[in-house]
Design brief:
alpha/beta, pyruvate-formate lyase- activating enzyme, 5-stranded mixed barrel, binds 5'-deoxyadenosine, binds iron/sulfur cluster
């Protein structure tokens, strides 16, 4: 009987992708994936450090594992990911959470098999949280999640040092994979039945620096791989996005007309203090250029509310920006102080209550805009890539439009993995309800 591994992943797509590699490496040493931690011989928490909430959740869940470890003393508990690259966090885990066997950082992912092997042999605490700029380790096995979409990392790390962000400290310097390795992974995913490829990087637009290839060129090559029905990518940084990229997107039918372009805020003083490298005017210029190449493009963004020093008057510029751009989706966050980043020592000028009230206002404005945009989809016929059964309603299938909008409709299992036409009959704020469209 094989041993079992349970993996819990926090945070972004990059962590999800790392967990797929952990699953792949675990299989090579005899661990099959399981979905209930009670059944596991090895539990891995792959952590996120971007905001404090995510960290608190990890501490809470780790504390709760103590009882399980008491019941099953041979259980191995490993904690990895971005939090482990923060020295104070790794030390705290060692000091307070004595039931944890292994901690390893983002730079030690490729050593997973040896670390587990060591834990199986001895009962000492095992730690590998070295802080290095980062390397690239090709050839790690991957067990992808079920479904029709495969994520492929094209680069790791970040060099931007936005003043609020911990990522450059925990993921190391920007480094791009070789084009050949990326294309081989894409072809392999297609061979295994995946229809949609999501290219991942903290800042995909700086892919290829020092390699004589741009992101736009890479994208064009991925679009030409036989069998790739859809391609998306994230995240784009407004300071690095090129017209060449927009041109490539507009030229290829299988590159989805969707852009995630985090703006973070709409006020020029705050943007400067965040070290974002663009102004709101430059950002509006990019949005206009994207829409001139692709009038129907869907655009999403990330916003931070309550950055230190931001006044409510300055926050009004963010509201104004939302009204002007009219995003399809906004991921909004209240600023979370990250030790060691420049913003951590900057002073607040408004109270937490005022930040919360600004945040709620932003949600109200954006919900209204989302609903207004989705209403324009009524009676439209949209090509939808069918992803599977809805988790909440087994009668219903779910899929996405080219622009990434979630669509729910009734249909049979044979449709899963296909791109079919769906007529939108009932747009909601967060998704679109529809029916399979059959031409008369
Ligand atoms: N506080 C709040 N949000 C943050 N993000 C990054 N760092 C912080 C922080 N300290 C947000 C940014 C980024 C997204 C992934 O997370 O909006 O684009
Ligand atoms: Fe963080 Fe800025 Fe890098 Fe994005 S671009 S990961 S926000 S430092």
């Amino acid at each position: 009987m094989s041993k079992k591994i349970y993996i819990e992943t926090y945070g972004c797509q990059q962590n999800v992708s790392d967990s797929e590699k952990i699953a792949g490496m675990a299989k090579e040493i005899g661990y099959a994936l399981c979905s209930d931690k009670e059944d596991a011989d090895l539990i891995v928490y792959n952590t996120c450090a971007v905001r404090e909430n995510a960290e608190l959740k990890v501490y809470g869940n780790l504390g709760a594992l103590k009882a399980l470890k008491n019941k099953k003393p041979d259980l191995i508990i490993a904690v990895c990911g971005c939090m482990m690259q923060e020295t104070s966090v790794a030390d705290r885990i060692k000091r307070v959470y004595k039931h944890v066997d292994i901690v390893f950082g983002t730079h030690a992912l490729h050593k997973f098999k040896e670390l587990v092997h060591a834990a199986e042999q001895e009962h000492d605490f095992i730690s590998d949280v070295e802080n290095i700029d980062g390397e690239i380790h090709e050839g790690l096995p991957i067990i992808r999640g079920e479904g029709v979409c495969a994520s492929v990392s094209i680069m790791y790390g970040c060099n931007n040092f936005c003043t609020y962000c911990i990522v450059p400290y925990v993921r190391g310097r920007e480094r791009s994979r070789d084009k050949e390795d990326i294309l081989a992974e894409v072809k392999d995913a297609v061979k295994n039945g995946y229809k949609e490829i999501m290219l991942l990087g903290q800042n995909v637009n700086s892919y290829g620096k020092g390699k004589d290839i741009t992101f736009a060129e890479l994208l064009e090559e991925v679009a030409s791989v036989e069998g790739v029905e859809r391609i998306r990518f994230m995240t784009s940084h407004p300071k690095d996005i090129s017209e060449e990229l927009l041109r490539v997107m507009s030229r290829h039918a299988n590159i989805c007309k969707q852009l995630h372009l985090p703006v973070q805020c709409g006020n020029n003083r705050v943007l400067k203090s965040m070290n974002r490298g663009y102004t709101r005017e430059k950002y509006f210029g990019l949005i206009n250029m994207a829409r001139s190449y692709m009038p129907d493009i869907t655009i999403s963004t990330d916003i931070i509310v309550g950055f230190p020093g931001e006044t409510t008057e300055e926050f009004e510029d963010t509201i104004d920006l939302l009204e002007r751009v009219r995003y399809d989706t906004v991921f909004s966050f209240i600023y979370s102080k990250r030790a060691g980043t420049p913003a951590a020592t900057m002073e607040d000028v408004i109270s937490p209550e005022e930040k919360k009230s600004n945040f709620n206002r932003l949600l109200d404005v954006q919900n209204r805009i989302c609903a207004e945009i989705n209403d324009t989809y009524l009676n439209k016929i949209c090509p939808v890539l069918v992803e599977g059964r809805s988790k909440t309603d087994p009668e219903t299938l779910t899929g996405r439009t080219d622009g990434g909008k979630l669509v729910h409709f009734k249909g049979s299992d044979e449709l899963i993995g296909k791109i079919i036409d769906v007529k939108i009959t009932d747009p909601k704020t967060w998704s679109l309800m529809g029916e399979v469209y059959e031409q008369a």
